[in-house]
């Protein structure tokens, strides 16, 4: 009977293991039948007990994160209003709202003039994270990028979410952590293919990981004796620090210096990442172009004008100071068509405000800061609601009351009056 020779790395011990079938070479354990049914192959090429490996167990979460970030990035690129400095749901308007509630409001104030480049960078970043997670390419770096984006959104958007656990950004931050530790886990990923290709080119062992009970590792190694490791003196035989499990080419955390296989993997991975980045840029450009060609996502809450805060120019052409009894003048009521909205600054606190003429002759105004997370709400005429573009809260345009959460309270109303001179006033 021929034998295979097994070498334990760093142990200096070679053990002869009979080359025979598993059924013939292993002693039967008590209670096991003499002949066992052949195991069925699992779907998608999952190895036996593969659900115990992080790559397979985290695959649904990885697919979800990839889908969310791809959708978020493409949605922003396809919607011209997102990059607008005047749209109620645009990045500029959102940042104005975040300044009021964010703990980094001072930084946001300085970055406000760069809102459009920040919006572009956010969309491209989300697209890159989504592609990295979907392809399993440079997965740890993609996960770090996802954590950075999620944490920045937590500090700006959902820091004051009420209750705090309704803010999803912090959950996304922690959801990316396992992928920083384990990457794609060698499952359905380009990282795994690149590692195998680099190992094949360097003529080293296949790096694919499988689940092996430690008792079988002890039998294969041959250095197990009464709970002790015979290869290394004064060492308990345990999975931690086991040279047999590390193999001939041990892991980097175990102390191995980077070698030719690592360098080859970096080169191949870099080329693959460059190709994926080029494809992503083409996709982003196509989506952005299509969005602008068809007008993007229709933002019915987009403001049709913006009123000043202290004076206005009526139809007669002269500047009129608002009577103190009526409040602060916004502008001519005739400049706000029926079914449209306009933005202004709330005199009492400096917040962004929204004034609407839902029906002819009826004007309503509210503090436009969403009480959930501080985003700036907009008027959606088609649905007859005031809605938050960030988390989907909806408010009754007649009363400001909450229709759909997660906002727990309604919008703060602002008194608006049409004066005898046809000018709108707020106080």
As for the number of domains, it is: 2
- The backbone outline, from C-alpha atoms, is elongated
Taking all Cα atoms into account, the compactness measure Rg is: 31 Å
Poorly predicted regions? 1-33, 296-304, 308-322
Structural class: alpha+beta
Determine the mean pLDDT.
78
Name the beta content range. Answer: 15-25%
Which percent range fits the helix content?
25-40%
* Straight-line N-to-C gap: 97 Å
Q: Number of DSSP strands?
A: 18
Largest sheet strand order: 9-10-11-16
Please summarize the sheet with the most strands.
4 strands, antiparallel
Count of helical stretches: 13
Give a verbal description of the structure.
A hairpin with a 2-residue loop joins strand 10 and strand 11. The strands form six sheets. This protein has a four-stranded antiparallel β-sheet, with no helix packed on it. A four-stranded antiparallel β-sheet has the order 12-13-14-15, with no helix packed on it. The chain is 37% helix and 15% strand. Helix 7 runs antiparallel to helix 8. 36% of the residues are buried. It folds into two domains: 205 residues, no CATH class; 116 residues, Rieske Iron-sulfur Protein (3-layer Sandwich). The chain is of the alpha+beta class. It is elongated and about 100 Å long.
TL;DR?
With 427 residues, the chain is of the alpha+beta class. It has helices spanning 22-25, 54-57, 59-78, 91-101, 105-111, 115-135, 139-156, 168-175, 177-182, 190-201, 214-221, 243-246, 260-293, and strands spanning 3-8, 13-18, 224-225, 228-229, 235-236, 311-312, 320-321, 328-332, 341-345, 352-359, 362-367, 378-380, 385-387, 394-395, 402-404, 413-414, 416-418, 423-426.
């Amino acid at each position: 009977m021929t034998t295979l020779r097994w070498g334990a790395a760093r142990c200096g011990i070679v053990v002869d293991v009979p080359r025979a079938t598993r059924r013939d070479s292993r002693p039967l354990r008590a209670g096991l039948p003499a002949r066992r049914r052949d195991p069925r192959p699992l779907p998608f090429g999952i190895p036996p007990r593969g659900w115990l490996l992080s790559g397979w167990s985290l695959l649904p979460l990885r697919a979800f994160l990839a889908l969310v970030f791809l959708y978020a990035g493409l949605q922003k690129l396809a919607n011209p209003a997102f990059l607008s400095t005047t749209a109620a749901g645009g990045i500029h308007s959102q940042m104005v709202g975040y300044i009021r509630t964010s703990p980094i409001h001072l930084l946001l104030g300085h970055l406000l003039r760069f809102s459009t480049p920040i919006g572009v960078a956010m969309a491209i970043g989300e697209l890159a994270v989504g592609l990295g997670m979907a392809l399993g390419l440079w997965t740890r770096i993609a996960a770090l990028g996802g954590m950075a984006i999620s944490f920045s959104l937590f500090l700006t958007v959902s820091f004051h979410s009420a209750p705090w656990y309704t803010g999803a950004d912090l959950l996304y931050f922690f959801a990316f952590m396992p992928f920083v530790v384990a990457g794609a886990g060698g499952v359905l990923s380009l990282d795994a293919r690149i590692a195998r290709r680099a190992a094949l080119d360097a003529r080293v062992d296949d790096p694919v990981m499988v689940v092996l009970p430690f008792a079988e590792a002890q039998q294969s190694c041959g250095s197990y004796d009464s709970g002790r490791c015979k290869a290394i003196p004064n060492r308990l035989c345990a999975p931690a620090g086991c040279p047999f499990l590390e193999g001939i080419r041990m892991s980097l955390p175990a102390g191995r210096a980077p070698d030719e296989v690592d360098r080859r993997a970096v080169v191949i991975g870099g080329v693959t990442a460059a190709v994926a980045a080029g494809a992503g840029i083409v996709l982003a450009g196509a989506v952005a172009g299509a969005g602008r060609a068809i007008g993007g996502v229709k933002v019915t809450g987009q403001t049709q004008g913006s009123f000043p805060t202290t004076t206005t120019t009526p139809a007669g052409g002269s500047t009129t100071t608002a009577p103190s009894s009526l409040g602060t003048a916004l502008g001519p009521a005739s400049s706000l068509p029926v079914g449209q909205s306009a933005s202004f600054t709330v005199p009492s606190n400096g917040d962004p405000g929204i004034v609407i003429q839902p029906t002819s002759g009826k004007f309503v105004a509210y503090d436009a800061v969403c009480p959930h997370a501080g985003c700036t709400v907009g008027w959606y005429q088609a649905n007859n609601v005031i809605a938050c573009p960030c988390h989907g809260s909806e408010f009754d345009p007649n009363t400001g009351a909450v229709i759909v959460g997660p906002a727990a309270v309604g919008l703060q109303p602002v008194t608006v009056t049409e004066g005898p001179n046809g000018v709108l006033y707020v106080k």
